[in-house]
TrEMBL record:
The gene is egsA. GO terms for molecular function: glycerol-1-phosphate dehydrogenase [NAD(P)+] activity; metal ion binding. Pathway: Membrane lipid metabolism; glycerophospholipid metabolism. InterPro entries: G1P_dehydrogenase_arc, G1PDH, Glycerol_DH. It is found in: Cytoplasm. It is an enzyme of class 1 (oxidoreductase). Its cofactor is Zn(2+). This is Glycerol-1-phosphate dehydrogenase [NAD(P)+]. It comes from Halosolutus amylolyticus. Its EC number is 1.1.1.261.
Length: 353
């Protein structure tokens, strides 16, 4: 008897475009959300978006509470939960980069409340995903969480954000190629749960972005449009899979380890992009594929070397040789690389000098 079942949880409204921040109150109305929202944001996104949206809510007779977080930690999730209870919030709105949105997402899951995702940077594909990503000591958790009820992505705000945030989002998408290779490998070797639909959607998203790389240019609002659609599509792939597998393989393990070894040195998307060059090499040897990843990254101005990340060569080697321990996720790294092999892949791909 066939007894499999699955829930694919997706946002109801995805509102993308010029000036759509002004529609936030209408989106809440459309979702029939009642009561007071708690905005979860961080310092710059607060100025850029949270305060202006709060003014619109006040004008509509709704008084939002606001909490500002600095880091994506379980403590921050706890602070938001406490603030939501203290302020008698009925739903949450995550406004900012990946960290603010992840915290709102996980807190709303804990509180069994809806949340809205308002990205102020096209820097990561967690905008619509049903996962939160949190470092915790030596490990990194991919936490099952609420997907947003709605996304409000204002391309005017996204286009005005520092350009490197957009190139980081592009690199997070380009890394889907190697994430899916790792997922297929894990399916073959470890029989992990696998969805061909999610894998195909994730790869196709990367393909479309790379095909449109010419249109991804600083100061061009259309770039934010293209990148945001790709980020949404990649998040949907994660929701279909019920895991971050379609968008997170060994290149993400490498990035998560860099976050521990060199905190704050580079953006998530940039780190996974450089990781992807090296894991593509591991998958394909000296054949051309890793060069395609590197060229796609450089065509949108994303870093392709340790120096461009602002990370020294030895830290790259340490991350490569230890990152398989970050979580129990089988990838091309298997049970880990030794130092000589790590040096070879990093040198051959030009990541270290
Ligand atoms: N849950 C998921 O599925 C996913 C989660 N992530 C997580 O997201 C995080 C990475 O996201 P990021 O956005 O790169 O990091 P982030 O949230 O730290 O943002 C990077 C910086 O950009 C600033 N910023 C945001 N909007 C701005 C604007 N309009 N103008 C000026 N500055 C602005 C932020 O204040 C922050 O200082 C990581 O923790 C990563 O693990 C990434 C991908 C998927
Ligand atoms: O960054 C992500 C996908 O781009 C999420 O991945 P993790 O599950 O590795 O945190
Ligand atoms: Zn990512």
């Amino acid at each position: 008897m066939f007894e499999k079942s699955t829930w694919i949880r997706l946002p109801r409204n995805v509102v993308v475009g010029h000036g759509v921040i002004d529609d936030a109150v209408d989106v809440v109305d459309d979702l029939h959300l009642q009561g007071r929202p708690l905005f979860v944001t961080s310092p710059t996104p607060r100025e850029v978006a949270a305060d202006p949206i709060a003014d619109d809510f006040v004008a509509a007779g709704i008084e939002p509470a606001i909490v500002t977080i600095e880091k994506a930690t379980f403590d921050a999730v706890e602070r938001v939960i406490e603030a939501a209870e203290a302020e008698d919030a009925a739903y949450l709105v995550g406004i900012g980069g990946g960290k603010a949105i992840d915290i709102a997402k996980m807190a709303s899951d804990h509180l069994s409340m809806g949340f809205l995702s308002v990205p102020t940077a096209a820097s990561h594909d967690g905008i619509v995903s049903n996962r939160g990503s949190v470092p915790d000591g030596d490990t990194r958790h991919s936490v099952a969480a609420e997907p947003p009820l709605a996304v409000v992505a204002d391309t005017e705000i996204l286009a005005e954000a520092p350009w490197e945030l957009t190139t980081a989002g592009c690199a997070d998408i380009i890394s889907n190629y190697t994430a899916v290779m790792d997922w297929r490998l894990a399916k073959r070797l470890k029989d992990v749960e696998y969805s061909e639909y999610a894998a195909a959607l994730s790869e196709m998203t990367a393909e479309i972005l790379v095909d449109n790389a010419d249109l991804v240019r600083p100061g061009l609002e259309e770039s934010s449009w293209i990148v945001t659609k790709a980020l949404v599509s990649s998040g949907v792939a994660m929701s279909i899979a019920g895991s971050s597998r379609p968008a997170s393989g060994a290149e993400h393990l490498f990035s998560h380890q860099l976050d521990r070894l060199a905190p704050g040195a580079a953006l998530h998307g940039h780190q996974v992009g450089v990781g992807s060059i090296m894991t593509a090499y591991l998958h394909g040897g000296d054949r051309g594929f890793w060069r395609n990843i590197r060229d796609a990254l450089s065509s949108i101005d994303a870093p392709t070397t340790a120096a461009e990340l602002g990370i020294d060569d030895e830290t790259v080697i340490e991350a490569l040789t230890t990152c398989h321990e970050i979580r129990d996720r089988y990838t091309i790294l298997g049970d880990g690389m030794n130092e000589r092999a790590a040096r070879e892949v990093a040198t051959k791909t030009g990541v270290i000098g």
